[in-house]
Write a structure and sequence with these properties.
- The protein is of the alpha/beta class.
- It has 21 helices and 16 strands.
- Strands 4-5-15-10-11-14 form a six-stranded mixed sheet, sandwiched between helices. It has a five-stranded parallel sheet with strand order 9-6-7-8-16, sandwiched between helices. A three-stranded antiparallel sheet has the order 2-1-3.
- The radius of gyration is 21 Å and the shape is globular.
- The chain binds pyridoxal-5'-phosphate (PLP).
- Pyridoxal-5'-phosphate binds next to α11.
């Protein structure tokens, strides 16, 4: 399987090269040249590992089966995930099931990808004979940062530098990041918002002079953001897994169509669902759920992408995003792989902050995606409602998915809602929703939430308060380049 650029500006590369490069050096994202077909309804006894093997093998065809198996086993085990099956399902009403994607070390769905991606990268480098020391640069709105730090911590031949918006992440997210151990991890708080951080990281990647400068010292940049195919492909697995679990539990029959509702920010998770659909999972609609930063749902309604708008800080901060990187992959596919148009749109986005797609494309998009957004009040109401009706606590991101799903026209099909974070990760807002009060701090929120709901506290959050702070850098946006060079000792 080869990987090609969404902008038609780079030769086709192997999966190992696509993962090693992260993004296309001249701009653009790597996508599989064609999508393999993978059977959606496995034997009832299939394990998560076996599903992962079946889905990943044809996508990473230059990796050997034992190489893929070794990556899967190193990533998904009892040390990193608190249930043997990696992801779990919980039916909350007759036609709604929540897919728990947060059983990994950092309590958010990004662990599913970021526990395995470092193993892909190390394997890819070995296969390609790459000697350079990889420097992973991450811009995070909260959850990616910690998940990447945990994934890459003590990873051989790799260092990781994470930038997060100082006021744009929750107290728990910040603590999770600044307490990270490992001798190759670096964290900096940036005075700016997430999009500022992400734009600055992208420009570091795009800076050819900087690239040459660090190469002379034996370094090369790479990315752990969901623009890296090695990050996206493991997410396809759980769409297969969820479908198999619904069949195994008799909630649906093999072959039945279902929907997935996905709380969306960078369009990565929902895109993985779209790939799963194209590879064979019987998915009718993908429901793109936004919070108040509704740039994506507006785009899907109108065909006009417009990032020139007010940026809101919400209770679902991991979705507070105005530039959804992975949308580029989707537009490439639905435009019939029209790299010229994609290039034009993204040049326009960089220049003017927006672009417009033609009517027929908008129609094609609306046939497979349903999009909507909900406000903050609705998020709290939804957390409370699900708790009252199903006795089950969801977090504020998951609530966006549930609410948007409940608002759309009913098609009679079962819908799986991706649960992207443990409620304990955002416990003060969740407590507010359920008990109508705030606690003194995040830790007391966790305790009180546990007392009320009886759901066990996620083990990744249980001991956070005792951990020493190891990273205390705070920098201006303009200082990111020199911070990187300083960390590399240059
Ligand atoms: C990252 C994240 C999202 C958004 O996922 P995308 O792949 O960027 O669309 C939603 N919820 C949580 C909790 C997240 O961490």
């Amino acid at each position: 399987m080869h990987y090609i650029s969404t902008r038609g500006n780079y030769p086709a590369v192997s999966a190992a090269e696509a993962i090693n490069l992260g993004m296309v050096p001249r701009g653009g994202l790597f996508v599989p040249e064609r999508l393999p077909a993978v059977d959606p309804a496995p034997a009832a006894s299939e394990s998560y590992h076996q599903t992962a093997q079946r889905v990943l093998e044809p996508l990473l065809s230059d990796f050997t089966s034992p190489e893929i198996r070794a990556c899967i086993e190193a990533a998904y085990n009892e040390e990193s995930f608190d249930i043997p099956d990696v992801t779990g399902i919980k039916q909350i009403s007759e036609r709604e099931t929540v897919l728990e994607l947060w059983h990994g070390p950092t309590a958010a769905f990004k662990d599913v990808a970021l526990q395995i991606m470092p193993h892909f990268l190390v394997t890819a480098k070995r296969k390609l004979g790459k000697q350079a020391h990889t420097v992973i640069l991450v811009a995070t709105s909260g959850d990616t940062g910690k998940a990447a730090l945990e994934g890459f911590k003590n990873c051989e031949g790799v260092s990781i530098i994470v930038f997060f918006p100082d006021d744009g992440v929750s107290e728990i997210q910040k603590l999770q990041m600044v307490t990270t151990d490992g001798d190759n991890t670096h964290v900096a708080a940036v005075r700016g918002n997430f999009d500022d951080c992400q734009t600055a990281v992208k420009s570091l990647f795009g800076d050819e002079r900087l690239g040459r400068l660090i190469a002379r010292e034996g370094f090369v940049f790479s990315s752990a953001n969901s623009i890296n195919w090695g990050r996206l492909c493991p997410q396809i697995v759980y769409y297969y897994r969820a479908y198999g679990a619904l069949v195994a539990q008799g909630i649906i029959q093999a072959g039945d169509q279902i929907n997935f509702a996905v709380p969306t920010g960078n369009f990565g998770n929902i895109l993985a669902g779209w790939y799963a659909k194209r590879m064979g999972v019987p998915i009718n609609r993908l429901i793109c759920a936004s919070n108040k930063n509704n740039v994506l749902s507006d785009f899907i309604w109108t065909g006009r992408y417009d990032r020139n708008r007010e940026f809101f800080r919400t209770m679902s901060p991991s979705m507070d995003i105005l530039i959804s990187s992975n949308l580029e992959r989707y537009l490439f596919e639905i435009s019939g792989r029209d790299a010229g148009s994609v290039t034009g749109w993204y040049e326009k986005l960089a220049r003017d902050g927006g672009f417009m797609i033609p009517e027929d494309l908008k129609g094609a998009m609306q046939r497979e995606l349903v999009a909507n957004w909900v406000d903050e009040t609705r998020v709290l109401e939804t957390v409370a409602q699900v708790y009252q009706d199903a006795g089950y606590v969801i977090d504020t991101h998951t609530a966006v998915g549930v609410a948007v799903n409940r608002d759309r026209e009913d098609d009679g099909l079962h819908t799986v809602i991706d649960s992207t974070a443990s409620p304990y990760k955002f416990s003060s807002d969740v407590l507010q929703a359920i008990a109508g009060r705030k606690a003194a701090d995040e830790f007391q929120s966790i305790e009180q939430l546990c007392r009320i709901s009886g759901q066990p506290v996620h083990r990744g959050l249980a001991n956070l308060r005792e951990r020493p702070i190891r990273h205390d850098r705070v920098i201006d946006i303009g200082a990111m380049r020199e911070t990187v060079l300083g960390i590399l000792g240059m």
